């Protein structure tokens, strides 16, 4: 039943968020530390376990895959409610800071990822 | 008639949002094929349309939630809110190959650290150039450059003025929007192709919203890898900015 998959997803989601909150408290931070990331790791582990022991059925997986497929529509809805007016009206300092940061980070990403290709070429193929 | 439609829209907010977003996605797919011959991804166009509508909504209402501030479209706040966004992000983890994620885990963590320090340093430097001299304001603006949540959390923790906190949110929001829009254009330059490269990107670009939308508009299959790392960004920033980074700035000025 697809609902089992969705319920499993919800369980991982809530557990992850809870652990993230607890981690935040333990570190003395007023924020959730990686709750969503922890939930993702949990779901990966659950799926691995389910496949290995054969209790995860294809029908149940549909209940997760549907939500994964809704990801892009949800992100578009998210874009529709960004505070674009404020972001654009922040004055030159805001614009300059954001542009400089994105440029620098893109450069960094490019630098690190270009090294991956080189490393892959040098490594023996298996 | 108008009140009837209004009532229908408010009572069925989430359902209406599905229909609206579906329409936007359909139009974007059409534009992508006919106008750009598939060179610009449909979802990239959809996100641009979304941001434009958010601008229009913000201008019309003077509110902070874009199109969702119009009563008629208030359901968008639920569909695009943090709850469903995070739920959908977690669901994408189902597509992750554990071996790929494990292999790139360490480089993702390094990218995460650079992605916290680098924006902070740039934010503090530019704020300094614009005349800010006190450690509290400098740290808050630098923190806002990491993500728009780190800014106000840090500002509140170290006692920044509300004007500076607002500024730090503006920097973070603009950065997130910039990442959404520019990622598909810069994808080739950043070599965004493999799961590993997406994890590096997720760590460095920060902001879950920016990364999730940017990757969605570039290559849907890379989304879970980038998001996996990016979701630690705000937590790490909230951990480092009001403590270590603040002490460093205070020692320097």
Structural write-up:
The complex is a heterodimer of chains A (126) and B (253). Chain A has helices at residues 2-27, 35-53, 58-69, 71-80, 84-88, 92-122. The model of chain A has no long low-confidence stretch (mean pLDDT 87). Chain A is extended, with a radius of gyration of 20 Å. The longest helix of chain A is centred in the last third of the chain and has 31 residues, at 92-122. The two termini of chain A are 40 Å apart. Chain A has six helices and no strands. Chain B has 253 residues and is mainly α. In chain B, α9 crosses α14 (233-252).
SSE inventory with pairings:
The complex is a heterodimer of chains A (126) and B (253).
Chain A: H1 2-27, H2 35-53, H3 58-69, H4 71-80, H5 84-88, H6 92-122
Helix pairs in contact in A: 1-2, 1-3
Chain B: H1 2-11, H2 13-35, H3 42-61, H4 76-79, H5 82-92, H6 98-103, H7 105-129, H8 135-146, H9 150-158, H10 162-186, H11 195-205, H12 208-216, H13 223-230, H14 233-252
Helix pairs in contact in B: 2-3, 3-10, 7-8, 7-11, 7-14, 8-9, 8-10, 8-14, 9-10, 9-14, 10-12, 11-12, 11-13, 12-13
Q: Which percent range describes the beta-strand content of chain A?
A: under 5%
Describe the sheet with the most strands of chain A: none
Give the SSE string of chain B.
HHHHHHHHHHHHHH
How many helices of chain A? 6
Strand content of chain B: under 5%
- Give the class of chain B from helix and strand content and strand pairing: mainly alpha
- Could you give the order of the helices and strands of chain A? HHHHHH
What Rg of chain A is obtained from the alpha carbons, in whole angstroms? 20 Å
Number of domains of chain A: 2
How many strand elements of chain A? 0
General form of chain B: globular
Summed over residues and divided by their number, the pLDDT of chain B gives a mean of 90
- Please report the total strand number of chain B as a whole number: 0
Number of helices of chain B: 14
The radius of gyration of chain B is 19 Å
Estimate the helix proportion of chain B, in percent. over 70%
Task: Quickly count the domains of chain B.
Answer: 2
What is the share of helical residues of chain A?
Answer: over 70%
Span from first to last CA of chain B? 63 Å
- Give the overall pLDDT of chain A as a whole number: 87
